[in-house]
Amino acid sequence: MSKFLPDQLASTENDLIDSLLTQGSEGWTASYQGLTLKTALQPIFSISHKRIIGYEALVRAFDTDAASVLPIHLFQLPRDAAENLFLDRLCRHLHVQNYSQLSDSLNWLFLNVSPRVVATGRQHDSFFGNLLRKTGLPAHRVVMEIVEQPTDDADQLRETVSYYQQLGCLTAIDDFGAGHSNFERIWNLSPDIVKLDRTLITRATDDRKARQILNGIVSLLHQSGCLVLLEGVETHEQAIIAIDAGVDFVQGYYFSHPSTELPNIASNAPDFETLLADYKSRKQLQLDPSQQIVSFFSDYFLTAITLLKQGSALDRSCQSLLEHPAVSRCYLIDTNGVQLKDTVVAADSRYQVDPRFQPLENTESADWFRQNYLKDALAQPNILQVTSPYLSVTGAHMCVTLSLAYNHHGRIQVLCCDLLANRMEHLSSSL
């Protein structure tokens, strides 16, 4: 069959596929190499809207005994590129036919597109425009998912994505964050939605650093003009992480399983009210302790600045500050951000210089003009400022910086103090 398939498809478009579709009481099915194919839909939810905004269409295969066949086995059946193309088109035709019959006239249908189909460009996928016209499904309700894989022809990939966009469809990059993902693909294709691979949420569940990376990826994608969907959310804790990361949409077993019972697909809505209430409660318990930190260290700073104004050396002036277990270093900078003299560091063993980062230790005359702790201090002189945790370039460790601008002999100087983020539990016990 396969060697004649391209010519047949070119001449008959959807007619050949139509002959393999059957409409029954529970929707459309398709026949393929002795298997019966059905559409399963998995709801996709907007966290902010607290409701379904779309469905991903997945194929489910059954043998003659109605036993389920794994998708991986189904997609191993095609023997060549032509049959791969045929199976891809058959599945999409089946999904569009089924989705067109639903009473939902608002939400998106997410359709996976085979990388082999994408690589062939608009000539081999013009059938899809015909399919939309035939079924009456508006193109703006379809999201074409492009799996993140390398392609030999980036220009052809861009042309194909452009074809879907010109049809009026939305486009999405699938499985971003795994394998061959890169932001260059985002910039070149300008997708409307980026689907983050489930490995990102799996890692973020057990690793706080991975959670911070997830948050950063979401932020960068938003800045690139993309909406972000996180798939593979399977537990309550992962749902909380997804909310905190700032993703727009979520998908996974925690919210809803895929189902072939299409008329009842939206009947079991998750309890977003309880989920968001839990998240808000946690955030209230984890409020930024900045005001407590400011209150605790205000007297230390006033003492240090009084001594500095009296002519005491920086190390003697900041002695009380440096004795606190969370404090690692103190330093002075001028209004241009240039550091005055070298840094004074805590004398005991709690702050050990990592020999790997010794080239960064000497900061005399360093320029900190770009740092927010300088800008905030200069904007509000004589008021102690505190930053959120950030990565310090002086030793590649996470820290929080306190800063206070004061007048010394007619010149504004800023006293800064770094707190080690991994020692903040000592600070908490002191507050």
UniProtKB/TrEMBL annotation:
InterPro entries: Cyclic-di-GMP_PDE-like, EAL_dom, EAL_sf, Sensor-like_sf. Pfam families: EAL. Residues 14-272 form the EAL domain. SMART domains: EAL. This is EAL domain-containing protein. It comes from Marinobacter xestospongiae.
